[in-house]
Specification:
139 residues; 32% helix; alpha+beta; Aminopeptidase; 39% strand; binds coenzyme A; six-stranded mixed beta sheet
Length: 139
């Protein structure tokens, strides 16, 4: 991840989510040394990104998104694969995340990596209000 890519990440975030993180929030993540921030880049263009912070041996995915024009080409898979590889190499106990219960593409992606539903948070999301599924991959 490079600081020059932040504007593009923030723009993708706005395009993908109804409650987007701000550019400043991403910049703060970039400065933390307990957080992975990876971008998928082709010919200088940022097509997707993922972030995950770690606490001891636990991984918490915060953001995952791929440009709408480049979906279903394996970019999301490559981003989650990178986190999975990190999890294995660093002996994480688990990686976990929240996802809207209607978000079939994301749930499909995570399931392929062995994430399973471990819980649910009622009305966690807004615009529109929706439950979150908690999905975790245990190592
Ligand atoms: C979820 C997301 C990151 C997937 O990125 P992607 O680059 O399209 O994913 P991939 O091409 O690697 O797809 C991997 C697998 O995910 C599942 N998947 C992806 N898109 C899907 C769709 N539209 N419908 C059903 N399953 C889908 C499939 O299992 C797919 O494998 P396949 O193509 O061999 O069938 C992307 O759809 C996205 O950015 N969505 C908007 C932001 C978002 O919802 N982020 C997640 C927040 S928790």
């Amino acid at each position: 991840m490079q600081i020059a890519w932040l504007d593009r990440v923030a723009a993708l975030e706005i395009a993908c989510f109804s409650d987007p993180w701000s550019r400043d929030s991403f910049e703060e993540l970039l400065r933390r040394d307990d957080t992975l921030f990876l971008c998928a880049v082709e010919d200088g263009a940022v097509l997707g990104y993922v972030t995950m912070y770690t606490v001891v041996d636990e991984g918490y995915i915060l953001n995952v998104a791929v440009d709408g024009h480049y979906r279903r080409r394996g970019i999301g898979t490559a981003l989650i694969q990178a986190l999975d590889t990190y999890g294995k190499k660093n002996n994480l106990a688990f990686i976990t995340l929240e996802v809207r219960e209607s978000n079939a593409p994301a749930i499909g992606l995570y399931s392929r990596f062995g994430f399973i539903k471990v819980g649910e948070r009622k009305n966690y999301y807004h615009h529109p209000t929706e439950n979150a599924l908690l999905m975790t991959k245990f190592y």
